[in-house]
Amino acid sequence: MSDMMPRNARHNDINAEASAYHTSAATHATLSIIKGDILHTPTPDDFEVFENGYIIVADGTVQRITSDLPNEYANLPVTDYSGSFIIPGFNDLHIHAPQYPMAGLGFDYKLLPWLERYTFPAEENFADPAIAQRWYKRFLNKLWSVGTLRFSAFATLHAQSTLQLMRLSQQSGLRAFIGKVNMDRNAPESLIEGTDDSLATTQKLIEKSRKLTPDIGFIVTPRFVPSTTPELMQGLGELVERYDLPVQSHLDENLGEIDWVRDLHPDIPSYAEVYEHYGLMPEGRTIMAHCVHTSERERALLKARRVYLAHCAQSNMNLTSGIMPVRRDLNYGLSVTIASDVGAGHVPDINRHIVQSIEASKMLSMLPGHQGEHPLRLPEAFYMATKAGGAFFGQVGSFEPGSDFDALVIREGDNPLGLSPQERLERFIYAGDDRSITHRFVAGREIPLPFPEA
Ligand code: GUN
Ligand code: FE
């Protein structure tokens, strides 16, 4: 049990409440029992609902989920959230931590001028460790607040502030992959690194973070093809192989960007194949954000490499990038997750991104070429925001036995209409916000607001 105990005494462990009670089984697992209206999506087809149900958690992992408390557990204390509903935590596979302070700005522009006018100047500020410290704490507080318990984030190219973000994330109790952004071409002078320098700094950071941040993984993060020379991509591919690392980047977000990639790499048949060519598409460990304008051969590659597609509907609308054909991609067998892409997405709240993904899908289904396509349904979108992205972290994102117990407890006011648990969840997703989230658990541990002073 000692390795499950909080490192930080402020952190409250639901396991601790039951620490005096051990099972008679040989495992001596520390058990805790949580009661409430439980909802999750083991499959995209539908919600599974346990009204007044119980989740039995052993050492941070879901052991079982039941409607009635089995006799063998009758003497154990129950953490009772009756009247609240309990759902898996949200997982955001694409977010830019340094863009949080400028989220919502510049949306009269499309991607490339937006990057130049708003994003790059914002990211330059993170050369200053004091700014990084202040804003990364606020960023983590915000993710905690809205129920994003795991995420994969871009930092900036600055090594020191990237390590700060990793250490603060470790302290927060949330789980994450974080990458130092690599960029050695096509950016302002202050945001361009020498190729060798970029690789050496990245390697140092990989090694340092392995020692310092056991719960926060390093993810190799070429910004996108136009920002990285072939030499840099080649070197990053070697780091991926050598350290067995995951990769995140952007793909097929905007038509101008795609033309630019074609000009830069005329000998490679498609944008996705540039990443593949340089060893930047490790199987089952790659996140590609956007994928709005993929070609058929790209989809075949994304499927073969089991890439996680991060659908950023709000961002794609803000920057007039397009509408990702999610139904087509799902039918084809691609893994699609829902992500915020803050700051091209203006808020990190995943419940709002669920809604916007559904809206985008409905809009697309009314347009020529897509008529007859079934728009995304709520349980599908909820699955994409929980279990589909959770898989990037292991068995995460539902309450099926064996899953990490990552959960949000949500309490709304009284229920005069007598809504069912599922209806209350639907209402929360569409019209609710962080004010209703009363408790957050990551791998069985309750996580308090990470940085109250920020
Ligand atoms: N492509 C390259 N960089 C970025 C970024 O910061 N945001 C988005 N949305 N797309 C990008
Ligand atoms: Fe992005």
Explain what you see.
- The chain contains 15 helices and 18 strands.
- Strand 13 (286-290), helix 9 (296-304) and strand 14 form a beta-alpha-beta unit.
- It has 2 domains: 15-88 and 398-446, Urease, subunit C, domain 1 (Roll); 90-393, Metal-dependent hydrolases (TIM Barrel), CATH 3.20.20.
- It has helices spanning 14-17, 111-124, 129-146, 159-172, 195-212, 230-243, 255-264, 271-277, 296-304, 313-318, 326-332, 350-365, 378-385, 387-390, 421-431, and strands spanning 12-13, 31-43, 46-58, 61-66, 78-88, 90-96, 148-154, 175-179, 181-182, 216-218, 221-222, 247-251, 286-290, 308-311, 335-338, 407-410, 437-442, 445-446.
- The chain is 35% helix and 22% strand.
- The protein has 454 residues and is an alpha/beta fold.
- Helix 3 runs parallel beside helix 4 and helix 5 runs parallel beside helix 6 (230-243).
- An 8-stranded mixed β-sheet has the order 1-18-17-16-5-2-3-4. Strands 6-7-8-10 form a 4-stranded parallel β-sheet. Strands 12-13-14-15 form a 4-stranded parallel β-sheet.
- It starts with 11 loop residues before the first strand and ends in an 8-residue tail after the last strand.
- It binds guanine and fe (iii) ion (FE).
- Fe (iii) ion binds next to strand 6.
